[in-house]
Design brief:
The protein has about 300 residues and is an alpha/beta fold. The protein has 11 helices and 12 strands. It has a 6-stranded mixed sheet with strand order 1-2-3-4-5-6, with helices on one face. The structure holds zinc ion.
Length: about 300
């Protein structure tokens, strides 16, 4: 049938022309395809073309499984629904209202991205409420007859969920298991403001372990079969990141200078362990500088 859909395939959205940044997971169901995190609106045409190159098309898509609503994961959801009005969109209940009315989400994104907003994220369309299925975690859903367990996995975002495809043993974990580029071993936590919650994040990693998946599918970027090693590395580095930021906050005041220092240190650590051909995606999307600010905010909130 569709060459792309051998169990759990994915397409590289070649976001901003760059490979290995954003992967959309693809699952074959009885009545068509499901996409895990369709990606940013600006990659909609690439997504459509990639489906076609693999013998499928957007009209085969029956469901979107969103891990969370950040624009690099879910920005294209409204565009997909506009093209295919019967598509069902699964999302955590706390993300649902921002899909249905993205005004607030877009306002805060514009504060961060400024003039680059449109070029990066495009025209983010609302998803009609009637297309949205809200989840809390703990459900088993069966879109297209394909059974998926849903777990609440906060830490990176308060509304982050993960999906476990029982048939293939693949856990679709969005950003909760960090970023790692296919072909590298290095696991990098991505901890931008404003939602970072360390205790919740650690518990989420344990939730993933309890599924005993055969592989983890990371939006950034790809599928990895060394699940235990990956999750251990993620937990260790997340703790190390958090501890480093906490210590820096105690020591000095100039936040931007500290964030720069943290950034340089962790980019250097990444470069020491990753083949040079894969540095770019880590640097584009790993962004330790932003992670510093997310963790600093976390510690400041706990202190106040
Ligand atoms: Zn992401």
């Amino acid at each position: 049938m569709h060459a792309i859909t051998s169990d759990s395939g994915y397409v590289d959205l070649k976001y901003q022309g760059m490979p290995y940044l954003i992967a959309t997971g693809i699952l074959e169901a009885d009545d068509g395809l499901m996409l895990v995190d369709p990606g940013p609106e600006t990659a909609f045409d690439t997504l459509t073309r990639a489906l076609e190159q693999n013998g499928a098309s957007l009209s085969d898509v029956h469901a979107l499984l969103l891990t969370h609503i950040h624009l690099d994961h879910a920005g294209a959801a409204g565009r997909v629904v506009r093209a295919q009005p019967d598509v069902r969109v699964y999302v955590h209940e706390r993300g649902a209202r921002h899909l249905i009315n993205p005004k607030r989400l877009l306002r805060s994104a514009r504060r961060i991205y400024g003039d680059a907003m449109d070029q990066l994220w495009g025209d983010v369309l609302p998803v009609p409420a009637s297309n949205v299925t809200s989840l809390t975690g703990g459900e088993t859903i069966a879109p297209g007859g394909r059974s998926l367990d849903v777990a609440y996995t906060p830490g990176h975002a308060t509304h982050h969920i993960s999906y476990f495809d029982v048939t293939t043993g693949t856990a679709f974990v969005g950003d909760v298991a960090g970023m790692r580029v296919d072909g590298a071993d290095y696991v990098l936590p991505v901890t931008p403001p404003p939602d970072i919650d360390l205790a919740a994040w650690r518990a989420s990693l344990d939730t993933l372990r309890r599924w005993q998946p055969d592989r983890l599918f990371l939006t950034h970027f790809g599928a990895f079969a060394d699940v235990g090693r990956h999750l251990d590395a993620m937990a260790r580095r997340l703790d190390a990141f958090a501890e480093a930021v906490r210590t820096m906050l105690d020591a000095e005041k100039d936040a931007d200078a500290q964030a720069d220092r943290f950034h340089e240190r962790h980019i250097a650590a990444m470069r020491a362990q990753v083949p040079e051909s894969l540095w770019a995606p880590y640097e584009q999307f790993g962004r330790p500088r932003e992670s510093w600010h997310g963790l600093a905010r976390y510690w400041r909130q706990r202190a106040s």
